[in-house]
Design a protein that fits this description.
19% helix; Pseudouridine synthase; ten-stranded mixed sheet; alpha+beta
Length: 282
């Protein structure tokens, strides 16, 4: 099958674990995920099957929504409570100050990713370096926080929250940065991915419950995508991976090429004005 699966990942599994289990369960050799979800986190994972693995970028660029719990006082090397405590600062802020601090993150800010992340530094993943007991400088990157607010009462040095963020945002770093603005330390106690773009965890199933027929086919996924119809001569060229230009269409949107009978031939994306390249050939 070529298409997508929405999985509700449980706590305790890596993203690789989820892919392995579903390969084995469904008998599909080619499965890829669209962005890692920490082992201690749960929630929506979108998997690409077969030819759809070429489309992972369509999801990784989308905004994401998370819920979770932040606990204040201790700093952990992993930025979550599964790690080692490395320092402590008293928790002396008020609930009003907490709400104001969370609000102050709205908009863009330069965020430093945690050492325990899959980002590469000089060819090595940061978490591999961190496990060797080494901490290295990480480049900050601009992320956007669109929503960050408490969803419960601040008590026992903990607060439940919801956050809507741009691609590349680490919620563990956001928790640590929030604590620092409040002149204390903090870390994630729990994390749940609620949505990726318009795709919601309510559409997902557990690994045990998911079945082959739960997959979303490419035909269904692209049903609302712009289409252009080409003749048999051009269809053969498209099937060989030819680029298209203004002679075939003039658009700034991705599109599907079909033949005169409506059969899906290829998915194209814009390179530049009137220059389009094939991303996936059906």
């Amino acid at each position: 099958m070529d298409g997508f699966l929405f999985v509700n990942k449980p706590k305790g599994l890596t993203s690789h674990d989820v892919v392995y289990k579903l390969k084995k369960k469904l008998g599909i050799d080619k499965i890829g995920h669209t962005g890692t979800l920490d082992p201690f986190a749960s929630g929506l994972m979108i998997l690409c099957l077969g030819k759809a693995t070429k489309l992972a970028h369509l999801f990784s660029n989308l905004d994401k929504v998370y819920t979770g719990t932040i606990v204040f006082g201790n700093h952990y090397d992993t930025y979550d409570v599964t790690g080692k405590i490395t320092s402590f600062k008293p928790v002396e802020f008020t609930e009003t100050a907490l709400h104001e601090a969370m609000k102050s993150f709205l908009g863009t800010y330069n965020q430093v990713p945690p050492m325990y992340s899959a980002i590469k530094k000089q060819g090595r993943k940061l978490y591999d370096i961190a496990r060797s007991g080494i901490e290295v400088d990480r480049d900050a990157r601009t992320v956007e926080i669109k929503r960050f607010e408490a969803t419960g009462v601040f008590q026992n040095h903990e607060v439940d929250f919801i956050a809507s963020v741009s691609k590349g945002t680490y919620i563990r770093s956001l928790a640590v940065d929030l604590a620092h603005r409040l002149k204390t330390e903090g870390a994630l106690k729990s994390l749940h991915r609620v949505s990726v773009g318009n795709y919601h965890v309510d559409q997902a199933k557990s690994i045990d419950a998911i079945q082959f027929e739960d997959g979303i086919t490419l035909e269904t996924f692209f049903q609302d995508t712009k289409r252009i119809i080409l003749n048999d001569y051009m269809v053969k060229l498209v099937q060989n991976g030819v680029y298209l230009d203004g002679r075939q269409t003039d658009t700034n949107e991705p599109f599907i090429v079909t033949d005169t009978q409506g059969k899906l031939i290829a998915y194209y994306e814009v390179v530049s004005a009137q220059n389009y390249h094939p991303v996936l050939i059906f």
